[in-house]
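FORM 12-B: Structure-to-Sequence Request
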């Protein structure tokens, strides 16, 4: 089989610019392998790719997937082995996972043992790797601490809540929709509706300020997030659900004394010598999901031919968690 089905960005624009085309199956190399894609999760970064907001990107989007090794190339995995893959330039500098086959750098492929359904596995790679890194590396959370997750019903937010609750943190999580509070409660978080009164409500519950804030909403809420933490508290910017407008920051006026602020760009770090994927406990994520400790299944599953509808849902703000697409 030399040809494959793929979803192509035909021109920068809305979801309708995503169209199925036939492309050649990519070839492996000494530094890459080719995977047979079985399912992939959607990510908001792919909306920015599609719109052309982040400049010129690959025609085939998709920054993560699960599937099987088709051609091991320069890797040491065997053909047919189950794997997950994320980043490594997928969807940015090289064609990504919105296809039947994808070429991925060897360093960005991880073998997995689970026999769970592909849709279930596809909800894990990017969301859990990113959430775990933010909690363990950026925010360095500890058992007994209090964490606020802004954007808690997003896929990344739900992954962060699952991980934090398993680490025995108290979690306060926000949503813009009161109807979604039940999602947060089911994960063990205390739900809050994000509003101008959020700071007062958080400080009423935790008068000295919380230990850490994971802000997935973006620059529009960041200065308010600074006000939620205690002295020497930590804030990490993890996403741009509310948009990525430039941030005007006056440290003297906007940053509480002693507060630690950080950011992490997963696309630039995962799979590099700074953060090898072998350092991310994917086996633990999968095992805890199989035991029901993590509630990490996909909230929405779409067939490949419904990619436009899937992107429409992602942009609408009405998704209730991770959106997964099944490859043909």
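FORM 12-B RESPONSE
SEQUENCE OUT:
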């Amino acid at each position: 089989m030399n040809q494959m089905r793929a979803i192509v960005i035909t021109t920068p624009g809305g979801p309708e610019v995503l169209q199925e085309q036939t492309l050649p199956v990519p070839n492996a190399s000494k530094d890459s392998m080719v995977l047979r894609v079985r399912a992939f999760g959607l990510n908001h970064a792919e909306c920015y790719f599609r719109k052309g907001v982040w400049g010129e990107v690959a025609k085939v989007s998709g920054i993560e997937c699960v599937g099987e090794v088709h051609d091991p190339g320069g890797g040491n995995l065997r053909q047919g082995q189950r794997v997950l893959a994320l980043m490594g330039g997928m969807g940015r500098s090289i064609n990504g996972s919105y296809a039947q086959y994808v070429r991925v750098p060897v360093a960005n492929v991880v073998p997995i043992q689970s026999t769970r359904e592909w849709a279930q596995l596809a909800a894990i790679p990017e969301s859990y790797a990113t959430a775990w890194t933010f909690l363990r590396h950026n925010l360095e959370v500890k058992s007994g601490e209090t964490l606020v997750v802004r954007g808690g019903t997003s896929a990344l937010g739900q992954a962060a809540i699952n991980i934090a609750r398993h680490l025995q943190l108290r979690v306060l999580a926000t949503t813009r929709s009161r109807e979604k509070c039940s999602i947060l409660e089911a994960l063990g978080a205390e739900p809050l509706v994000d509003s101008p009164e959020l700071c007062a409500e958080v400080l009423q519950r935790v008068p000295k300020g919380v230990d850490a804030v994971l802000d997935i909403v973006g620059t529009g809420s960041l200065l308010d997030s600074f006000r939620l933490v205690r002295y020497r508290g930590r804030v990490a910017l993890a996403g741009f659900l509310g948009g990525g407008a430039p941030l005007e920051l006056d440290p003297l006026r906007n940053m509480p004394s002693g507060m630690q602020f950080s950011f992490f760009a997963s696309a630039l770090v995962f799979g590099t010598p700074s953060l090898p994927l072998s350092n991310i406990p994917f086996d633990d994520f999968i095992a805890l999901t199989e035991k029901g400790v993590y509630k990490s299944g996909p909230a929405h599953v779409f067939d490949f031919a419904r990619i436009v509808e899937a992107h429409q849902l992602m942009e609408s703000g009405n998704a209730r968690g991770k959106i997964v697409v099944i490859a043909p």
